[in-house]
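Ticket 4471: requesting a sanity check on a complex prediction with pyridoxal-5'-phosphate. Repro inputs:
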Amino acid sequence: MSEQFVLPSPIQELSHPLFQAKKVQVFVKRDDLIHPIISGNKWRKLKYNLEAAREQNFPTLLTFGGAFSNHIAATAVAGQVFGFQTIGIIRGEEYLPLNPTLKLAKEKQMRLIYVNRSDYRTKDRLALAESLVTEPFYFIPEGGTNALALKGCGEILEEESSQQFNYICVSCGTGGTISGIIQAAKRDQKVIGFSALKGDFLKKEIINLLGRKYDNWTLQTDYHFGGYAKFKGELIDFINQFRAEHFIQLDPIYTSKLFYGVLDLIKKNYFPENSKILVIHTGGLQGIRGFNERFGNLI
Ligand SMILES: *Cc1c(COP(=O)(O)O)cnc(C)c1O
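Returned structure tokens:
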């Protein structure tokens, strides 16, 4: 594996007067440090898919994503590092100049194909891809979530003696990452998902991904700050303050909402005394440049 990868990723304890007052311990699994671009859960989800693509002799990876997608960036860079051609089917029309995410993808030789929003919404993405591309490809769904992705995400817990943690907290988009963690968690561990999207549909998606009933998880749906990729000044202040206090950068789409939610639950005495809480930093920092370009260097 390329030297750029930091695996296993480190676990770091945070200190804060709040944690002392509430008698809890908070640790961060620094998956953001795995790789500058193929970071966090996007690496976890790609790992076994890259293996499968190689075993099945596919020269090309094809996947889907929005114009600022961490998964598109990760797939483009992974393609170059591991020797695959890549095709990204992008939601919406092309805007020039390209935003930093798509510019990077293109620099890494990803072929970008733009699809209008109504076509993009189709349930049968594979058929859509086959109508757009003639060569054979290894198909990876939007966000990278499939059965092999769940297997890779389970390894977040297996890397170290995770049994010492009572709670595992993680951000949710498609629900792939939390599903892999739920499957890998020990019986006495509780997994808490923090939805980055507005609405209740995610719970069903996670139940579908899991394939059978698990009792060790819950979903927090009150920390979306208005919905996917929406934010408020309070969230921006939180990101900047968190970096100043802990020297850890959070992203505006996922991990800031997660950490905000965890701290809020601690304040509200959600966690019993002596709890050990592991918060997964799923990465996503590549998106900050594009975010700052759009909204004016807030982070
Ligand atoms: C994609 C992403 C998520 C969401 O993961 P899912 O498996 O889709 O739930 C969370 N955090 C970051 C930083 C991401 O890039």
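Notes from triage: The pocket of pyridoxal-5'-phosphate is lined by residues 40-42, 70-71, 143, 145, 171-177, 251, 254-255, 282-284 (CB under 6 Å). Leaving this open until the requester confirms.
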